[in-house]
Design goal:
about 15% strand, five-stranded antiparallel sheet, 12 strands, 13 helices
């Protein structure tokens, strides 16, 4: 299961997908290049080595042939010490090992024998002495000419591996740099999109770079600007409506109308006005954007204790609270207080058990790793599982499942909106044993 998750992570990340694709292509290219180079250079290298060996044998044979017999020992000593060339007589009792199995060896032997004769023999070791051995004749006598193996053989496999490793590491670093360069604009766009989804205002994206990235960033910045303008216009319109309904003149006209009504009608209208005033207030809360610049370090434990004390003053609410001390989060205290009050009010309206005079609410606050978890649960009827997601949408009320109380359908929508603007998560689910549970998750500060 863990391996599957890791593979899914690698497949989902554009940076790593690009890196591994480039790394694979670079590795395949290097292998193909090395193989091609070894094939192409085999013939020229065999000819060059053959020419070198033929030249050494020819010069050595000429020097030995034309030197005085009493000076040949000194000549052989000079060849061995200065040129790394050793001469041994070829004996029938010599223990001869075959030459090294090298790709260029057949071509090398063919070239040398074409000049020195088909009787020329080669060996990698004679009488347990290693080197590159080639035979030649002087006046009918056969001799061995021995060269150091390094003069004939190409670089060792270890050297090739070292150079290939260095080249591969540099290539992979280049692949990582290119992948990062390609992925950086998309990462910025993704981060900005997530900020917008949480209700935050992202920094404008740089309108520079390749044409496609420049146009995408410009379009995104324009979209964010349009959303902010629409948000502002909506707040102004709703504020205007609220202001019109709350002006002294409107109040006075309503009072005049109410003066002509019976006591029962007047009481009913007052109730309707109070409900309307509450709904308008919820409209304004939902339309009002959260200013992240107002965020501060808040003692969430003390804030919830204060909210619980205030809520318990209502006769129809009983609260069982388990609050861990000194849990701090970053946010707007007024907005977080509104979140808690809205959830408690939702439970007060819809979370009473059948026939009960008051609602029982369980509240727990705890810190888990780097997150603060706030859980509020009632013991009411709950809601159908398929309706939970719809419950968080604006203007949604599920009266059939949660009672017949009046409202605008914005209570939990406001909660969800504010929690997202604080970079948190809201999870709503049915409580085991009956009732609705709301869990709020916020980042610890």
């Amino acid at each position: 299961m863990v391996g599957t998750n890791r593979l899914a992570w690698l497949k989902s990340g554009l940076l790593w997908r690009t890196f591994f694709m480039l790394a694979f292509l670079i590795t395949v290219s290097m292998v193909a290049w090395v193989a091609s180079f070894r094939i192409v250079e085999r013939g020229p290298r065999a000819q060059a080595l053959a020419a070198q060996i033929i030249s050494i044998v020819t010069i050595t044979r000429a020097a030995l042939t034309h030197s005085a017999p009493d000076l040949r020992r000194e000549l052989l000593f000079d060849l061995a010490s200065n040129e790394g060339i050793r001469i041994y007589p070829l004996e029938d009792t010599d223990q001869i090992d075959p030459p090294v199995d090298d790709a260029i060896m057949p071509d090398l032997e063919k070239e040398v024998r074409s000049k020195l004769g088909n009787q020329t023999r080669f060996s990698s070791k004679v009488n347990e002495i290693g080197g590159f051995w080639v035979s030649f004749k002087i006046d009918g006598d056969e001799y061995w000419l021995v060269l150091d193996r390094e003069r004939v053989e190409r670089g060792s496999g270890v050297q090739w591996l070292q150079w290939a490793s260095v080249a591969l590491i540099l290539s992979l670093l280049g692949a990582m740099f290119i992948s990062t360069l390609i992925n950086q604009p998309l990462s910025r766009l993704t981060a900005a999109t997530r900020a917008v989804a949480k209700g935050l205002q992202p920094e404008p994206l740089p309108e520079t770079g390749p044409t496609e990235i420049e146009e995408a960033n410009r379009s995104f910045n324009q979209m964010v600007s349009d959303l902010q303008r629409i948000e502002s216009d909506r707040a102004i319109i709703l504020a205007g409506i609220s202001h019109d309904l709350r002006t002294p003149l409107a109040r006075m006209l309503l009072e005049v109308e109410m003066a002509n009504l019976t006591d029962d009608a007047r009481s009913g209208m007052q109730s309707d006005l109070a409900q309307m005033d509450g709904i308008i207030g919820q409209f304004l809360h939902y339309a009002k954007p959260t200013d992240t610049s107002s965020f501060e370090n808040i003692n969430l434990s003390e804030l919830i204790e204060n909210v619980v004390q205030t809520a318990e003053r209502q006769a129809d609410i009983r609260i069982q609270a388990q609050i861990a001390p000194d849990i701090y989060v970053s946010g707007n205290e007024t907005e977080l207080r509104r979140v808690l009050n809205n959830v408690i009010e939702n439970s007060r309206r819809y979370g009473k058990q059948d026939g009960a005079d008051c609602v029982d609410i369980d509240i727990s606050v705890q810190a888990r790793q780097d997150r603060a978890l706030v859980t509020l649960a009632d013991h009411g009827p709950g809601i159908p599982e398929g309706e939970i997601d719809r419950l968080l949408r604006p203007f949604t009320r599920l009266d059939v499942a949660r009672g017949q109380a009046n409202g605008s359908g914005l209570g939990l929508a406001i909660v969800s909106r504010i929690v997202k603007q604080h970079g948190g998560k809201l999870r709503v689910s049915n409580r085991e044993g009956g009732g609705l549970s709301s869990q709020i998750e916020l980042q610890l500060s």
